[in-house]
Amino acid sequence: MNTKLPRVLVLHTGGTFAMVLDPKQQATKQDKSILAMLHAQVPELSRIAEIELKLISNIDSSDIDSSLWSQLAQTIHNSWEHFDGVVIIHGTDTMAYTASALSFFLAGLTKPVVLTGSQRPLSELRTDARANIIDAVELATTGHPEVMICFDSVVYRGSRVTKRSSEHLHAFASHHTPPLGHFGVHFTVNRGLIKPAVAKPQRHQPSLDTRICEQVFVLDVVPAAPLADELIQALLNNYKGILLRGFGVGNLPLANKSWLHLAEAANKKEIPLVIGSQCQTGTIDLQSYENGRAFARHGAISGQNMSLECMTLKLMVMLGRGVAYDSRHEFFATPLASECGEVLQQ
Ligand code: ASP
Questions:
Q1: pTM, full prediction
Q2: Is 16 one of the catalytic residues?
């Protein structure tokens, strides 16, 4: 074993990456050793790094939950001294949620944590898994201290990424900020954006805070369809936080009073209500129109310019950390992991 090679911890959680396609072209889980499969299919990885693989789970990422997010963060934290970087193999469907969770859980990162996966299984002839894992492992050796997603030759900030396609190999899009880098003939980084690599002696352990509350309800609002009273009651009785995705800069129906009733009642019960937008770009501004101002007067929180994934996780983290109700606006507007704030040109 070449001891001069950087050491990379690879955590496998599941997803298409290690699945096989059955004769009907349906992806199914397989139980063969993932490590043996990686060695067999991508032997070149051993030229980039000394790899240690840990099987965390083998699930479809639709089944991810906060205990798995915590387990990932804990594992990374506990293994800190032994690795130069970490790669997480993850299903693409909820990869951006996990990237946001880890961005909040691991503050003050000094090494790379890179998530990747694939749209086609590694065992397939025409697969994107091979290139993705090679790029991800290489990225994990660079020292850039961020939670990142590396997919289809593009490097995204973990708190600023969203899944955009279930068909194209280019599965992700950067949200409200350019990508951090690209793998082409060379690996090129966006120097104004990516956090500079940290030198080895300064790679101290990050702080770990996995407190989170999963009891949040997220809803896309549509025109014309009202909220039933029973649903409002059920939301208030069963959830600790609510996220509504409205229109444009965060406008919601006013003529139909049910939405405002929800905001009013949630505010009385001190249940934070966050407003986002179904628009893909643009910042929430609840002061632009009366259809936003009315909700702001009832305490609604601006989702800023965060992706849905990150907004949801920020709400869960805010509730998990027990942030006082009066501090909710400040908590949401303050970047914890470069997830909001200044909008950089694409
Ligand atoms: N359903 C799969 C998952 O997210 C899709 C993928 O891996 O791309 O686990």
A1: 0.95
A2: yes
